[in-house]
């Protein structure tokens, strides 16, 4: 078997991406921002995946030397498949980061984490001097929590305790995220569980309040982050 001509190289991802045309459009904008030598934080999800494929075309055609810091194993594999070299936050500070989002309100607050990668995504966004959020128009909402719950990554044995404390913030519903087609919970790349919490109202301090609960690793609430939206 020739190394590189393996299952990884033959994988065809992204066949069932929703709103593909709109996502391709914003992905293209991101690829046009890449400069030779850039260290780029690469977000997760289908929009980020499309952006990486467009970046890879420029890297190949223009012989650019860039490195990506992936926010998930899936995106790390995508980089490997597309021939984009990767690095880490131990070695490099990103020049900029791009990522997708599930909901964005009028003040650019966001809910992220349908893919469960919000901890590393928040780490990359916090470490980057500039972040671009690429979002098709369906992601724009007048009020956060309209279509998606707030995902909360928790240490597994903290499940009962975190649920008890979370109830004080009056969620409409809290669910343990289950793996599709399986009788078990989703386990994150960090070995943790995800609680999806629905709130009628998401006040500014909810992100901090959730984060302060012992056992919470991170939430998918992004309130007042320094991001530019490309929609
Ligand atoms: C993953 C994320 C994604 O960026 C978010 O779910 C958007 O995904 P998509 O681009 O597939 O709509 O936060 O944790």
TrEMBL record:
CDD domains per record = RPI_A
Q: Which InterPro entries match?
A: NagB/RpiA_transferase-like, Ribose5P_isomerase_type_A
One Gene Ontology MF term: ribose-5-phosphate isomerase activity
State the coiled-coil residue ranges.
Answer: none
- Stated EC number for the protein is 5.3.1.6
* Top-level lineage group: Bacteria
Q: Which UniProt keywords apply?
A: Isomerase
Q: Which Pfam families match?
A: Rib_5-P_isom_A
A single cellular component GO annotation: cytosol
Per its record, how is this protein called by name?
Ribose 5-phosphate isomerase A
Tell me what organism the protein belongs to.
Parabacteroides acidifaciens
Gene of this entry: rpiA
């Amino acid at each position: 078997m020739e190394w590189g001509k393996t299952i990884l190289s033959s994988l065809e991802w992204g066949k069932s991406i929703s709103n593909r045309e709109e996502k391709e459009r914003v992905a293209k904008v991101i690829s046009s921002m890449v400069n030779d030598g850039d260290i780029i934080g690469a977000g997760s999800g289908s929009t980020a995946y499309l952006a990486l494929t467009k970046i890879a075309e420029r890297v190949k055609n223009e012989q650019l030397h860039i490195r990506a810091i992936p926010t998930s194993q899936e995106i790390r594999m995508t980089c490997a498949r597309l021939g984009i070299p990767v690095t880490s936050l131990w070695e490099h500070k990103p020049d900029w980061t791009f990522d997708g989002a599930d909901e964005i309100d009028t003040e650019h607050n966001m809910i992220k984490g349908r893919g469960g990668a919000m901890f590393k995504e928040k780490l990359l966004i916090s470490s980057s001097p500039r972040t671009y959020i690429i979002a098709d128009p369906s992601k724009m909402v007048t009020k956060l929590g309209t279509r998606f719950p707030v995902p909360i990554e928790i240490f597994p044995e903290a499940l009962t305790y975190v649920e008890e404390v979370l109830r004080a913030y009056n969620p409409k519903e809290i669910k343990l995220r289950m793996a599709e087609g399986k009788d078990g919970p989703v386990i994150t790349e960090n070995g943790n569980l995800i609680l999806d919490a629905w709130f009628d109202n998401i006040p500014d301090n909810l992100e901090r309040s959730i984060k302060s609960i012992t056992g919470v690793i991170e939430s998918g609430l992004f309130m007042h982050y320094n991001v530019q939206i490309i929609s």
